[in-house]
Amino acid sequence: MAAMLEINGITVRYGAIEALHNVSMSVDEGDVVALIGANGAGKSTLLKAIVNQVSLQEGSISFKGEVVSTAEKHKKSVPTHLLSQRGIALVPEGRHVFADMTVEENLDMGAFLVKDPVAVAKKKEEMYDFFPILGARRKQKTRSLSGGEQQMMAIARALMSSPHLILLDEPGLGLAPLVVQDIFNKIHLINQQDKVTVFLVEQNARMALKASNKGYCLENGNIVLADSSDALLRNDKVRAAYLGE
Amino acid sequence: MTTLIQYLQYLVNGITLGSIYALIALGYTMVYGILKFINFAHGDILMVGAYTGLLTYTALLGESTNPVWMLTAFFIAMLVSMAFCAALGMFIERVAYKPLRNASRLAPLLSAIGVSFILSNGAAWIFGAQSRRFPYPFDNTPIVIAGLSITPHQILTVTVSVIMMVVLTLFVNKSRMGKAMRATSIDQATSELMGIDVNKIISMTFAIGSALAAVGGILSSFDFRVYASMGTMTGLKAFVAAVIGGIGNIQGAMLGGLILGVLESIGAPLLGIPSALRDTIAFAALIIILLVKPDGILGKNEREKV
């Protein structure tokens, strides 16, 4: 069976700087896959490439067997705004909530492509059950939420479109350890209960590898390691470079 | 107290003028909110709106003097003009601004100034340099209430403006597309991730702004007549109004428009400035606001939480 998300030898350059070099990886349906790497390794660029917010110089990306992004000029990549329709949702780094809009309006935006208001209302209630703090704050401007609450809001907003694959960019960034734990518990539930495939990008390697079943390690734009997460947690190189052991 | 009545009269006149500024300021502010770009051709859209309205109205009216038909024809002409300007606004965005979206910030600004010249010179070429009168579609005899004289034209202007602003506010806050417009003005890249087609939102923003400018153009042309360069000064003042209210902020544009209209109307007699110099009030107000509160009255001066 083909993987849900297949990245085939992609290269991304920003001017003279090569952010990603011949990167290949795959995410199978139902998995939680972690991508770990230091700051500036190219992790966010990889996620942006998947949603076509940066263009590829080489290679291609397929989702559910269809090419969604390609470096080939004569083939068109799928524009970002059409990807959520196909089942990909990205929770961007730094959350990027619509700060001047209420929690409820943010969730409405997550369900922008769902035309049926009854379905949207039902989905919102599900989110308020899943993240009770959002239910309590539904009429508040997102600006007034704490960092952890904003992160949950950003995840809930991504889930509003009922994605098959959710991409999470540094969900634990800048948050207190307890809050990070809480968020990773939610990610586990999203994967186990809602059967959403998860692709997780994290600097916090231990957290990410514990939460996933497969892991990749990105260094200076190159995939240097790929293995099961358990094996990576025991790998000497990973332990020295990322786990500080 | 004749002076009190006089000042109330200036206030009424100022609110009338201000609601026209507000309608036009909305177009500047909505486009700025999304593209961070000042559409300097916006003033000329109001001129096109005034001409379209005038031509449609006179064509519809023919020789008729039936008061009901006059008013009906006027509103039909307004709708036609709104539709025409909406289409024109979208077209201009498509050909003159969209190709420059990734260029330096100066490029679309220069393009806008070019479009402005094309529109005003084009109108001068087609319609000649002579200004035209927009006939009142009703008997404009003032109604006198307690010494205040209010013309039907003023009632029409304020009523139409308030309706437009209420509809716009509801649209932006309650409708799916309106919320998407706000989301796009906050964060374009994230809006795309939500499935929002940002190009469509930008087109829509130009359409709405231009349609409001058409209304502003028609309503202003009773007092100021219709001519090819009519959009220049009114457009500039509406832009000042948008800055005073806080550019990018919809409520700010409405408030800024009203404040500017009232300042212009009351300021000249209050400060003893000859009315020929009353345009200076708008620009003095601009300088003061830029010195005191550069983000405008309702502009936000907050940093993003990261």
Give keywords.
heterodimer, A: 245 residues, alpha/beta, Rossmann fold, six-stranded mixed sheet, four-stranded antiparallel sheet, 10 strands, 27% strand, globular, B: 306 residues, mainly alpha, ABC transporter involved in vitamin B12 uptake, BtuC, two-stranded antiparallel sheet, 11 helices
| Largest sheet geometry of chain B | 2 strands, antiparallel
Mean pLDDT over all positions of chain A: 92
Radius of gyration of chain A: 18 Å
Q: How would a crystallographer describe the biggest sheet of chain A? A: 6 strands, mixed
Using the 3D structure, state the CATH architecture of the domain at 5-93 and 162-241 in chain A. 3-Layer(aba) Sandwich
Compute the CA-based radius of gyration of chain B. 19 Å
Unreliable segments of 5+ consecutive residues of chain B: 302-306
- Which geometry of chain B do the CA atoms define? globular
- Kindly report the greatest chain-chain contact and the residue count on each side: A-B, 31 and 22 residues
**Range of strand content of chain A:** 25-35%
Q: Kindly, what is the distance between the CA atoms of the first and last residues of chain A, rounded to a whole number of angstroms?
A: 37 Å
Spatial arrangement of strands, main beta sheet of chain A: 6-7-8-3-9-10
Helix content of chain B: over 70%
Would you count the extended β strands of chain B for me? 2
